[in-house]
Write a structure and sequence with these properties.
heterodimer, A: 231 residues, alpha/beta, Rossmann fold, seven-stranded parallel beta sheet, 21% strand, B: 116 residues, alpha+beta, hypothetical protein PF0899 fold, three-stranded mixed beta sheet, three-stranded antiparallel beta sheet, 2 helices, 6 strands, 25% helix, metal-binding (chain B)
């Protein structure tokens, strides 16, 4: 005869990642850095958006990029041409960046540069609309991109990403004349899930909407520098 | 497959508990609560758990997953409703956006059943 006992654990399954994200965020805070986590499906335009953003902001802000690329340095090489440090994390076959991987990028930032001189770090996540939304990496805000070609129903089908986003960029608006996709319908679908998210339609190709995105980035960095005094 | 990574973390968490026990007891069941409004596929967890526990202290233990439905609370109507995941999330009565979630976001190691 044996007896069965119960032990209540009540531990979040993402506990380990959450602890890693808090560790990363405390480092960003100590260095006075704002961290933005860029997420989207593959091909929504994260890298091109970053190229335009670096070109526009690198004179006024010190920026670094932590780049999650499945197996290559192609994206990282594109971004390095803009003269900012880019730390590529080779994620192998992983479908998302987790806090530990981003900590690897942070340590390289600390080794190669003086992190206190930086204002802003972009994390370019692995292209995937599902799991990156559940894995915090220590960011201060989540930015999701959805390109017009992906269709109106994606926010409904991949709700966690759009629920968690602080800013949503509807990209490739220059393609609107060729597609049967309504930006208004995309916005209505996102609003069902997230009444607070800042939504900016833009085209990195024509530059439409880019100024609104840059202003949003500036505002986030400014608001944070007022909260966390930079030593 | 993030279910694989999550299972790794799950096993490590249960091992921490197990090693802290005065006499390491055989574990019979690990109970999880997984919400419908998460990025986690219960079948994926089940598969990863069976594969990864082979030859470990959890070999033969059963993973029991309780799924919780997505339940939202409409602040305007002051009433709970069940959004249709994948199709519609706003309140079916007044169309207000889904703001408060009462159930469905859980990802929890609830409890462990063991013999002594």
């Amino acid at each position: 005869m044996h007896q069965t006992f119960d032990a209540a654990l009540e531990i979040n399954m993402l506990h380990a990642n959450q602890a890693g994200a808090d560790y990363n965020r405390s480092h960003f805070d100590r260095w006075g850095i704002t961290c933005l986590n860029l997420m989207s499906s593959p091909g929504a335009g994260k890298t091109q958006l970053l190229e335009q953003t670096l070109a526009a902001l690198r004179e006024e802000l010190n920026i670094a990029v932590i780049e999650g690329d499945m197996t290559t340095e192609l994206d990282a090489d594109r971004l390095r041409q803009h003269g900012v440090p880019v730390f590529a994390i080779n994620t192998g076959r992983a479908c998302h960046l987790d806090a530990k991987m981003v900590a690897g990028g942070l340590h390289r930032l600390e080794q190669d540069c003086n992190p206190s001189e930086f204002d802003l770090v972009f994390v370019e996540n692995v292209g995937n609309l599902v799991c990156p939304a559940e894995f915090e990496v220590g960011e201060h805000a989540k930015v999701a991109l959805l390109s017009l070609t992906e269709g109106e129903d994606k926010p409904l089908k991949y709700p966690i990403m759009f629920r968690e986003a602080d800013c949503l960029l509807i990209t490739k608006t220059d393609l609107a004349p060729y597609l049967d996709v309504s930006i208004e319908n995309i916005i209505a679908n996102v609003r069902q899930l997230n009444s607070q998210v800042k939504i900016i339609p833009l085209s990195a190709k024509t530059g439409e909407g880019l100024a609104d995105w840059l202003d949003w980035v500036r505002a986030v960095v400014k608001a944070r520098s007022q909260v966390t005094p930079v030593p | 497959m993030h279910e694989t990574d999550m299972t790794k973390a799950l096993i490590l968490t249960v091992r921490d508990w197990w090693e802290a026990q005065p006499k390491q007891p055989p574990v019979e069941k690990v109970h999880l609560v997984v919400g419908q409004f998460t990025c986690v596929e219960p079948a994926g967890l089940q598969f990863a758990f069976d594969a990864q526990t082979q030859g470990t202290f959890l070999d033969g233990a059963e993973l029991v997953i309780r799924e919780t439905p997505l339940i939202a609370f409409c602040l305007t109507c002051q009433a709970e409703y069940r959004p249709q995941v994948g199709q519609h999330y706003a309140c079916p009565d007044c169309d207000a956006p889904m703001v408060e979630i009462r159930s469905g976001r859980e990802l929890k190691i609830d409890r462990v059943e063991y013999r002594q």
